[in-house]
C-alpha cells in the first residue's frame, strides 16, 4: 500500500515535471503594445508610420529640459560642457491625468514622470490587447520594468526647499515603485520587479517576464521600460566619454558613424502564453520563441563590448528555441553607431548567423536608433516593438543615415546587409518569418530575444472560409471618466476610423 502510494506520487510528480517542461518551451505571444516614442509616436500605429516612412525624430534639446546654450560647446574637453545639442524627445511629459488613476494632484506632483508614463502606456497596452483591466483585478499578472535614470529624484532632492518634502516624496522618487505602482493601481498580485542593467534594462525585463510565465509565477505579464532626460549631467558625462554624435545623427554601421544620440521614451508589451492567447482569441503581433541574457565579464574597459559573449548568447538562444541561426532573416541590432561597438556586434552576428549561409542569402540588420536615438533603458523595448510591428506588416523599415558601409565590417563575408529603403519581408520557406533583437548594457549585460511571426489567422486576420455580412452602420459605445476625456476618445476613434485600412 505504501509502495503504491509512493509510486502514485512519483507518477504525479513526473507528469507535473513533463507539463512544466512543455510550458518552459511554449512560445509567448505579444498581444498588446503601448508606447511613447520621439516624433509624436504615441501608439503602435504612429510608431509604425514613423518607421515605415523613414522619419528622423531627432531634434535640438527643448527648452523644457535644460538651456542647451548654457551647456553646449563644440569642444568636448571644456569642463561642464557637452559637444552635442541633440536628442530624441517625447512631448508633454508634464501632462498626466491623475484623476483617471485615482491619484491626487498633490501626490502626482511627487511622482517621477517616468512612473507616470509607464502607468499610461501600461493601460494603453492592456487596452490595445483587449485585456479588460477590471477583469484582471486580483490576478497573478506580473509587471517587469527596466529603468535607470533618476533625474527627477535629483531635481526633487537638490533643487527645491527641503521643507516641501512630504510622505509622498519617497514613493514618488524610488525606482522600485515604478513597477510596484502599476501593480498597486491595477491590483495585480504577480511578480512586480524593476531591473537596472543600463541600456539593456527593458529587454532584460522582457526576458524575466518570459521566464516568469514559463515558471508559472504569472499567467499574464507586462514588460518594458522607460527613459526621460530632465537634466544635462548624463549627456555631459557621455560626451566626455566620446560616446555621443556631435552632429546628432546615429549612423549605425556606416563609415561616418561617430556616436549615438540620447533619446527618451516608454514602452510596454502585454505577454501571454501562445496557447492561452489563441484560446482567448487575442490579437497577436508576434511570438517570442526564446530569450536569454549573459555578461561580458572583463574586457578592455567596462563599457567595451565583448563579441564572444554576444556570439555565445545568440547561439544559446537559438539552440534553446530549436531554431537554426540560418533561418533568422532580420536582426534589430543594438547598433549604437559607435566606432568600437558596431564592428564588434556585426562580426558577432555574422559569425553566428552567416555561417553556412547560402550565397545571396543575407541576414538583414538595422537599428531603430537611427530614427529615434538611443532610448537607453527603453532601447530594448523600442527595438522589440519595432520588430513585432515589422513582422505584423511583413515589411522591413529602412536603416537611416547608411550611405557608405563601415570598412571594419566585412558585410559580404558575414552575409549581412543593411536596408536603405522599405522592403517587403520575404517568406521563410516552410518556416515562419524569424527575427532577433539585441540589447546591450554599457556595464556588460547582454540580452537577446528571438521573435517569430504570429500564426496565421491569429493576428486579427479574417478567416477566409467564413463569409461575414456587415451592416451598413454600427453602434460603437464609447466611455470615459469625464466629459473632456470622452470627447478626446471620440476624436481619437474618429481619426482611427478615417486612417485605418481595415
TrEMBL record:
<dbReference type="InterPro" id="IPR032821">
    <property type="entry name" value="PKS_assoc"/>
</dbReference>
<dbReference type="InterPro" id="IPR014031">
    <property type="entry name" value="Ketoacyl_synth_C"/>
</dbReference>
<dbReference type="InterPro" id="IPR018201">
    <property type="entry name" value="Ketoacyl_synth_AS"/>
</dbReference>
<dbReference type="GO" id="GO:0005886">
    <property type="term" value="C:plasma membrane"/>
</dbReference>
<feature type="region of interest" description="Disordered">
    <location>
        <begin position="1"/>
        <end position="21"/>
    </location>
</feature>
<dbReference type="GO" id="GO:0006633">
    <property type="term" value="P:fatty acid biosynthetic process"/>
</dbReference>
<dbReference type="Pfam" id="PF16197">
    <property type="entry name" value="KAsynt_C_assoc"/>
</dbReference>
<dbReference type="Pfam" id="PF02801">
    <property type="entry name" value="Ketoacyl-synt_C"/>
</dbReference>
<dbReference type="Pfam" id="PF00109">
    <property type="entry name" value="ketoacyl-synt"/>
</dbReference>
<dbReference type="GO" id="GO:0004315">
    <property type="term" value="F:3-oxoacyl-[acyl-carrier-protein] synthase activity"/>
</dbReference>
<dbReference type="GO" id="GO:0004312">
    <property type="term" value="F:fatty acid synthase activity"/>
</dbReference>
<keyword id="KW-0597">Phosphoprotein</keyword>
<dbReference type="GO" id="GO:0005737">
    <property type="term" value="C:cytoplasm"/>
</dbReference>
<protein>
    <submittedName>
        <fullName>Beta-ketoacyl synthase</fullName>
    </submittedName>
</protein>
<dbReference type="GO" id="GO:0071770">
    <property type="term" value="P:DIM/DIP cell wall layer assembly"/>
</dbReference>
<keyword id="KW-0808">Transferase</keyword>
<comment type="similarity">
    <text>Belongs to the thiolase-like superfamily. Beta-ketoacyl-ACP synthases family.</text>
</comment>
<dbReference type="InterPro" id="IPR014030">
    <property type="entry name" value="Ketoacyl_synth_N"/>
</dbReference>
<dbReference type="InterPro" id="IPR016039">
    <property type="entry name" value="Thiolase-like"/>
</dbReference>
<dbReference type="InterPro" id="IPR020841">
    <property type="entry name" value="PKS_Beta-ketoAc_synthase_dom"/>
</dbReference>
<feature type="domain" description="Ketosynthase family 3 (KS3)">
    <location>
        <begin position="25"/>
        <end position="453"/>
    </location>
</feature>
<keyword id="KW-0596">Phosphopantetheine</keyword>
<dbReference type="InterPro" id="IPR050091">
    <property type="entry name" value="PKS_NRPS_Biosynth_Enz"/>
</dbReference>
Amino acid at each position: 500500500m505504501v509502495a503504491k502510494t509512493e509510486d502514485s506520487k512519483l507518477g504525479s510528480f513526473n507528469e507535473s515535471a513533463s507539463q512544466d517542461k512543455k510550458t518552459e518551451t511554449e512560445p509567448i505571444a505579444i498581444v498588446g503594445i503601448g508606447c511613447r516614442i520621439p516624433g509624436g509616436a504615441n501608439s503602435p500605429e504612429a510608431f509604425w508610420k514613423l518607421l515605415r516612412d523613414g522619419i528622423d525624430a531627432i531634434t535640438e534639446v527643448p527648452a523644457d529640459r535644460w538651456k542647451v546654450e548654457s551647456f553646449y560647446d563644440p569642444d568636448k574637453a571644456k569642463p561642464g560642457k557637452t559637444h552635442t545639442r541633440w536628442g530624441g524627445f517625447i512631448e508633454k511629459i508634464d501632462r498626466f491625468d491623475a484623476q483617471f488613476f485615482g491619484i491626487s494632484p498633490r501626490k502626482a506632483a511627487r511622482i517621477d514622470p517616468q512612473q507616470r508614463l509607464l502607468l499610461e502606456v501600461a493601460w494603453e497596452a492592456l487596452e490595445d490587447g483587449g485585456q479588460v483591466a477590471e477583469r484582471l483585478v486580483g490576478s497573478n499578472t506580473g509587471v517587469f520594468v527596466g529603468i535607470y535614470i533618476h533625474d527627477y529624484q535629483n531635481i526633487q532632492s537638490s533643487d527645491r526647499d527641503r521643507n516641501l518634502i512630504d510622505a509622498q516624496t519617497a514613493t514618488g522618487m524610488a525606482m522600485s515603485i515604478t513597477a510596484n505602482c502599476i501593480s498597486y493601481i491595477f491590483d495585480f498580485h504577480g511578480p512586480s520587479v524593476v531591473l537596472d542593467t543600463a541600456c539593456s534594462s527593458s529587454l532584460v525585463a522582457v526576458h524575466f517576464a518570459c521566464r516568469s510565465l514559463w515558471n508559472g509565477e504569472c499567467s499574464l505579464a507586462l514588460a518594458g521600460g522607460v527613459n526621460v532626460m530632465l537634466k544635462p549631467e548624463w549627456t555631459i558625462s557621455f560626451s566626455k566619454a566620446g560616446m555621443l554624435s556631435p552632429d546628432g545623427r546615429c549612423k549605425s554601421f556606416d563609415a561616418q558613424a561617430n556616436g549615438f544620440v540620447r533619446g527618451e521614451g516608454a514602452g510596454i508589451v502585454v505577454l501571454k502564453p501562445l496557447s492561452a492567447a489563441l484560446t482567448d482569441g487575442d490579437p497577436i503581433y508576434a511570438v517570442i520563441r526564446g530569450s536569454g541574457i549573459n555578461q561580458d565579464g572583463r574586457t578592455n574597459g567596462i563599457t567595451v563590448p565583448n563579441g564572444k559573449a554576444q556570439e555565445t548568447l545568440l547561439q544559446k538562444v537559438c539552440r534553446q528555441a530549436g531554431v537554426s541561426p540560418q533561418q533568422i532573416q532580420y536582426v534589430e541590432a543594438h547598433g549604437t553607431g559607435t566606432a568600437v561597438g558596431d564592428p564588434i556586434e556585426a562580426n558577432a552576428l555574422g559569425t553566428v548567423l552567416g555561417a553556412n549561409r547560402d550565397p545571396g542569402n543575407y541576414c538583414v540588420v538595422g537599428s531603430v536608433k537611427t530614427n529615434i536615438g538611443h532610448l537607453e533603458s527603453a532601447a530594448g523595448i523600442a527595438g522589440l516593438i519595432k520588430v513585432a510591428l515589422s513582422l505584423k506588416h511583413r515589411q522591413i523599415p529602412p536603416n537611416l543615415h547608411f550611405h557608405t558601409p563601415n570598412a571594419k565590417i566585412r558585410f559580404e563575408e558575414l552575409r549581412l546587409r543593411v536596408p536603405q529603403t522599405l522592403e517587403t519581408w520575404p517568406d521563410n520557406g516552410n518556416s515562419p518569418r524569424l527575427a532577433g533583437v539585441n540589447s546591450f548594457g554599457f556595464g556588460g549585460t547582454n540580452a537577446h530575444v528571438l521573435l517569430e511571426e504570429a500564426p496565421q489567422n491569429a493576428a486579427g486576420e479574417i478567416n477566409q472560409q467564413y463569409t461575414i455580412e456587415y451592416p451598413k452602420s454600427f453602434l460603437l459605445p464609447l466611455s470615459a471618466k469625464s466629459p473632456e476625456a470622452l470627447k478626446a476618445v471620440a476624436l481619437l476613434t474618429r481619426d482611427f476610423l478615417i486612417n485605418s485600412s481595415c
